[in-house]
Every structure is written in C-alpha cells, then in structure tokens.
Amino acid sequence: VKRFVRRTLLDHDLEDTDMIFAQGRDAGFPHSRGETQDAIRLGQSIVFDLFPRELGGGYHHDCTRTWCVGFAPDEVRQAYEQVMEAFDLSVEVVRPGMDAKMPQEAVQDYFEARGHKTSRSDPMTIEGYVHSLGHGLGMNVHERPLLSHLSTDKFQKGNVITIEPGLYYPERGFGVRIEDTFCIDAHGELECLTPFHKELVLPLKH
To answer: How many domains does the chain have?
Structure first.
C-alpha cells in the first residue's frame, strides 16, 4: 500500500514525508508508522495519515482517515462515531481571534464526559485522547497556531490548520483518528481543503 501511495504522489509531483499506515494495535499508538510486512486484516482499524509536500520542498498537506476493511467491530464503530462528533464540534467553534487552545479544551471536555482519559485528566495516559487537536500547516508540517491546551496562539484569517481528534486503545487493538486541513478564509469561515469521504468501512470487492 505504501509503495502504491508513494508512486501515486510522485505522479502528481509530490513526495511522501513518512506517512502512517498502521492497523490494529499499531493504530492504537498515534505516531506508529505501522509494520510494512503485515497483511491487511478484516475488521482491524487502519489509521492512514498522509502529509505530503511539493516535490523538492514546499507546502505540506495533511489528512487522516480511519478504515476497517469488510466490517467494523462495535467498539471501533462507537469510538469512530465519538471522534466524528468531536471533529464536528471543533469545526463549529474555530473562529478568528479565538484562543487556539479553546477547541482542544472543548474536545477534552467532550471525551472526558464519555469516560475517556485525556492528556489533561491523566498526563501519563497512553489510552483515550492523548494528543493535541491540531496545528498550523505550511512549509513545515507542524507550525503555529498550535491547537493544544498550553497554546498561547490565537486564530487569524488566512491560517491553514489541521483538526485531528482521535481515540487510542492499543491493548484493545485499535485506534481511530480523523483529520482534515482547513483554511480560515477572509470571511472567518473554515474552508475544508481535504474533501475526501469519511466512511469507516471499506467494503470487500468481489
């Protein structure tokens, strides 16, 4: 899969900057790249995080989807639905002039109310919601504004940012993350730059 993606990127004058394609337990660790020798398994969550840039150096893009091939176990489906609700909540609240930490705090409130640990409620946790909500994007894949609970940044018109809530349970064999790239336009609205479908289950082709 990774070789196919890299070839496709090159066909479009883009280069891979170390994509994530992790399934099962590996998907439960946010920055695991996955094991290239593993076969894709039915019903396992796959976290696919692609953040290419222009060939030879240039602007980055960033998008993550979570898939299950064939079917999704109930606990993965429930986590996915909650991550999508947190994602939609974030998109609704981001506005220019707002403290960049506020959407992160809203997502932490949301997940904690549903019984998940967060990096705020338990800074040492490796389960639940364990990272920041997003970051600015440009010549570097991580730029300001930072969407973390410690951020001192504010959103401005023209910012290009990611929004990427997730839930991670490595010992239960799954992880879920959804990420899109947005621009805060001249009217202060979020324009999605990654309009790719968010279906959890990829059906088998016969």
So the answer is: 1
